[in-house]
Amino acid sequence: MSRTVLVLGGYGSAGARIAELLVRETEARVLIGGRQGSRAKLVADRLKRQYGEDRIAGVLVDAADPRLLRKALEPVDLLVVASSTTPLTAAVAEAAVQARVDWFDIQSSTRKLTTLRGVRDAIERNGCCFITDGGLHPGMPGALVRFAAGFIDRPQRVRVAMLFNLDWGALDLPPETTAEFVDELREARMEVYERGEWVKRRSWTTQPIDFGRPFGKRSTVPLWLDEIGSLPTLYPSLQDLSVWVAGFNWFVDYVVLGVGLPGLRLFGDRAGPTVAWLFQWGLRQFSRPPWGSIMLVEAQGWKKGRLVEFRGVVSHRDGYDLTAIPAVAALLQYLDGSIRKPGLWQQALVVEPRRFMADLERLGATVTYDLDVQTGKPVHRAPEAGPEARRPE
Hints:
Shape: globular
Distance between the termini: 37 Å
Number of domains: 2
Radius of gyration: 21 Å
Helix content: 25-40%
CATH superfamily of the largest domain: Dihydrodipicolinate Reductase, domain 2
Strand content: 25-35%
Number of helices: 14
Number of strands: 18
Strand order of the largest sheet: 3-2-1-4-5-6-15
CATH architecture of the largest domain: 2-Layer Sandwich
Low-confidence stretches: 388-393
CATH class of the largest domain: Alpha Beta
Largest sheet: 7 strands, parallel
């Protein structure tokens, strides 16, 4: 059965890519929605010409206008939230639940997750399927852990690391997007799972990680994600589990984040606009190539009485493509009914990880790993781990 999908923020950097992949990969009717109806129509018209399809349309949707939102949701089966509307999560989620519309979002926000958990009962009562924390980050780290652990009988140590080096100067980032990102950085927790328990780390805790060519070895800091919090329960043999993220550039890391984040904690929302402006300016002025985004997972554990290691890498030259690709890889499982079930779920924990990884590669990401996923036996490590790498034949 063909379904109707509304991509809220469908003309944004990530939303437009999600909409295009949905048109290319599915039979769904795709609606491009947002406050700027003319921009939504432009993206819809471009996709119509490119794919020769009439099942695409641009619609005016303002998440802050309940009347427009209700009207937009009337013909919709699934709402994909790719817009900077985190403060409106409660209102948009309530409208979706009342309309019995399913939900998928790519927003990284602790507050959003708390809000959605607050309406979990209503979601289940109305038979809705809400999938949150979609896309790249969050969304992929937990899925990579599950993928790696699936080839080890008793995983003991798993480490995920990520690096995002985008050509920020070429991107049209709305102020709301930057403000939301800075707000999430302010709430970030630095915790790792060590020797069977969660341990807080200081802001100066760093670890050098080799991301392969062309990035090489980079300094990273620990980052706790909600989606990895339950993984030690899922894999009781785990002793160490951590997620690490590389910095942006020297100015953003040491000036904006080093001084600005303490200022946010001290002065609250009054300092928010200044820090957000400096953050965006610093990204555009001081970021340098090579461009690309990369996420790797390294796992160690026991398999058939032997200690084995696994290293897998997912990368792409375009960070927004690498946000859209895992989102659509998850949506493909939702649209065919594989993971559609009433309740609130996180992408990383609900997708079937092997199919998810296969679809990442098919949709355009570069995927490498050093374990034969057909036999489950360790093989030689993939020689190139960066965005230019290719999976060995």
